Structure formats: C-alpha cells, structure tokens
Amino acid sequence: MSTTSAGSAVTPSSLRRRIDQLVLRDRYRLRRRLTKARDKAAGKRIPEDVLLELAADVEEAERRLEARRAAVPKVTYPPQLPVSKRVDDLAKAIACGADAVMLGAPLAGYRDAPGRGLYWTAAAAHPSLPRSRIAMGPDVDVDLETLLYGPSFEPDGRINLFGALRRAMAKTGYSDLKEFQKVGLTVRA
Fold this sequence. Notes:
The protein is mostly helical. The chain has two domains: 2-71; 82-180, no CATH class. The model has no long low-confidence stretch (mean pLDDT 76). The longest helix is centred in the N-terminal third of the chain and has 24 residues, at 48-71. Helix 1 packs parallel to helix 3. Helix content is 46%, strand content 5%. The protein has nine helices and four strands, in the order E-E-H-H-H-H-H-H-E-E-H-H-H. The protein has a two-stranded antiparallel sheet with strand order 1-2. It has a two-stranded antiparallel ribbon with strand order 3-4. A hairpin with a 5-residue loop joins strand 1 and strand 2.
C-alpha cells in the first residue's frame, strides 16, 4: 500500500476525498488525473508510483490552499457604517417574501467596485431632483465572488452573502427559498 510523507495510506478513494476539499482549479485538474489513472489501469489497481505522484500534487495543492486561507485579512466594519447595523436584514427581507434586495453598501465596498467605495443611498425617486446622498461603503478588500459566495472566515454574514442566507435558511429548517419566504414571523415591539 502506498503512503504519503505524513505516513497515511494512499488509496484512490482517500485521494478523491482530499481532492474534493481543494479549490476548483486544483479540484478539476486533479480529479481528471485520478480518472485518467483509473481508466488507464482498466479495472486493475492504479500503480503505486502514480498514486504517490498524485498524492504529492494533492499535498502541494493543500499547502497552497492553507497559505491562501492564512493570507485572508480579517475584515472589520466600523459600527457607524450602515452595513454593520443591517447585516441580518438580507435574510429577514427574503424571509418576508422579497424577491430582490438592494445591496448598495456591501457591493460598493468590494475591491473592484466602479464607484471605489461610494454609492447612492436609497431614497424616494423623483424625476428631476436627486433625493439621496452619496455615502461611503465598507472598506472590504475582497473581490465580488468572495463577497457574494465566500469563503468567509467571519461568521457574521458580511462577506459570503449567499452563504449567510443559506445559513439563515438552515437554522430555521428550510432548504428551499420559496419555503423560506413563507416562514412564520414573530414581531416584537
């Protein structure tokens, strides 16, 4: 049986489980290599040297992933920013039946935002007079994909907005968005 430098046994199924935890680029690349090795073996055992080489590449990909996770800065929001006070409002709006949610402040703060952190606040529309003000979004150094889909290493839902919504749904026992929009609400005064 093949073993890695850590001394654990290398099997195609153990490699598959480890590959499934990697970033997409490495996941697809290493899955293809594992599949090709299986196909080439044609029902026999995959050669030990092939498994060890693949295991070494998986270990390298795991090291890159850990380095990437360690390099993610801790995102903090000053309490005076509007997004800090309204983090839970996204899930609440969806639970109340909203089909869309305005994400001005969170989207204004991502790294490549066209307004470079500035956005127009929501206000009643008027055909000729501006009715809102320009505000500063949160200073977040993440890209749009990370802002919406994560990963986030903070549990408060300000990064990974869709993950926060999924978490709110899971905590309330819902797996479907349409079911979640029919959630029973308790209003406290």
